[in-house]
Amino acid sequence: MEPLKNLYTRAFLERFADIVKQEYNGFDTGRFLQLIYDEEWEARELKQRMRHIAVSLTETLPPSYAEALGILTAIAPQCRGFEYLFFPEFIEINGLEYYDLSIAALEHFTRFSSCEFAVRPFIVKYPDAMMNQMLSWAHHDNEHVRRLASEGCRPRLPWAMSLNAFKVNPAPILPILETLKEDSSEYVRKSVANNLNDIAKDHPGLVLELAHKWHGHHAYTDWIVRHGCRTLLKKGNPQALALFGFTGSADILANSIQVLTPSIRVGEELVFSCSIQNNTNSPKKLRVEYEIGFVKANGNLSPKRFKLSEKEYGVGDYEVTKKHSFKLITTRQYYAGTHQLSIFINGQEMGSVLFDLTFE
Asked: Long-range contact list for 172-175, CB < 8 A, 24+ apart?
């Protein structure tokens, strides 16, 4: 796959410069491009390129923050999509001391790209004012602004600075999630669920309490609760499993666990199978998962769990076969050695087998 950082082609940057120039005749396209294509450009990753473009804009737009922000505000509707995240980056770099101007601009920009990264320094600097603002955004008629209310205050938002205060005490987040728990937009609901999942990593009891309180009242909220408890489910939390009907039973088994490819190379697929047996006298709702213990650099195993199936199993035996790709990906480093495959049903380990991964 083409790296995302390569979105920023010269053609893209020239088109963007043309848009700026329509609003600001004094924009120096040549200097803008010269600043961007410095000796470190090729080595920069995606977020670094976004920051660098924002810095280059700072050097080529008017020195007045208000004037520069006015230009970006005017052209924002023409600059839609992920690649324009350098708009809020410009605010993050330059606007922390200009609260009112910056917050109004973030509300505007998020409709066209997204501003969840840029709001976080403002939350740290102005915690009370910002959480009041975000609660207000949670009532906004635009789904992108409502999503910003939830996404921006996630304690563990990927790619972003952590909000350590909310890891310790997530209470300021809860009124926002309460407001959005039946939101009509799936885009917003996904953010609420992800925020809950973040909180669950530090405060599982709080999320379980909310889950029991919210569950069963609205289909939208039920989906949020289910998705927000996914880490708790993966960890086999008994209360989370019971909430969704996944109760253990001594008469539910996984037998004949086999790795059909006991030795594979990086880039190939692991193929395995097992027999799910419901030996009770009635259908049972089962969450069947497999866990791979990946070999780390020090030789220890690092477990990662994946969902195999989640459905009602009638009385009897069910043969299940699954493939898991060991294709090289940027989010995981593979190491040669003996790995472990385990099968879990409703949070209970049913058995494990070993297999070897090589680079040859």
From this structure: 172/127, 172/131, 173/131, 173/199, 174/210, 175/135
Look at residue 329 in the predicted model and tell me its pLDDT.
85
The residues facing 319 across adjacent strands are: 275
Q: Which two tokens stand for residue 348?
A: 């209970």
Token pair of 343 as six digits? 């099968």
In the chain, alpha helices (H): 10-23, 29-36, 46-60, 65-75, 86-94, 99-109, 119-125, 127-137, 143-151, 164-168, 174-180, 186-200, 204-214, 219-228, 230-234, 238-243
% helix / strand / coil in the chain, to the nearest 5? 45, 20, 30
Dist. CA 74–CA 159, nearest whole Å: 28
Torsions phi, psi for 62 (to 5 deg) = -55, 145
pLDDT at 1: 64
Beta carbons within 8 Å of 177's beta carbon, 6+ residues apart: 150, 192, 195, 196, 210
Q: At 3, is the secondary structure helix, strand, or coil? A: coil
User: How many CA atoms lie within 13 Å of 266's alpha carbon, on the beta-carbon side?
Assistant: 13
- Complete edge-to-edge strand list for the sheet that includes strand 263-265: 263-265, 348-358, 337-345, 284-295, 301-313
Q: What is the pLDDT of residue 188?
A: 98
d(CA 342, CA 354): 9
Residues of the chain with pLDDT under 50: none
Residue 247 pLDDT = 85
Angle at the Cα of 256 from the Cα atoms of 358 and 279, rounded to 5 degrees: 145
Provide the 10 A C-beta neighbour count for residue 76.
19
pLDDT of residue 170: 98
Strands 337-345 and 284-295: antiparallel
Smallest Cα–Cα separation from 155: which of 179, 131, 178, 182? 131
Q: Amino acid letter at 195?
A: N
Measured from the Cβ of residue 298, the count of other Cβ atoms closer than 10 Å reads 7
The per-residue pLDDT for 342 is 97
Token representation of residue 163: 């909000």
